[in-house]
Input
Amino acid sequence: MAGAKRTLGDLMTVDQVAAFLQLNKLTVYKFIRAGDLPAVRLGRSFRIRRADVDEFLEARKVAPKRAPRPQPAEQPGAGSRPEVRPRIERRQLQPEREPARADESSRTSQEDRRQLREAMISSNPLEWVIRGLH
Output
């Protein structure tokens, strides 16, 4: 090889990559099949370069979690309690409605049931069997 000295550790088998990454062998095969982890097929087996494994890991590196922001220093003379805004309740935002009468709601539900019953009776008797109404 031109200028690059190769050692035996440069090429790894799927088992070695799985052990190195602490993954199941089938997961490594999945990455190879998806094209996420470059590999070379030699006969019926795969060989993966160590540099490709390192690039694979770098590509999946997660950004570190940001440190919490420091709280602003309290102003002298200000109370130790933070300013509390008044809470707006949901009832204040919605316009008031008149309560529905019980007889109106029962009348509409009775009409709905009657229409449904008429539709079922006028339908095909085969539908009765299918729906289990017989």
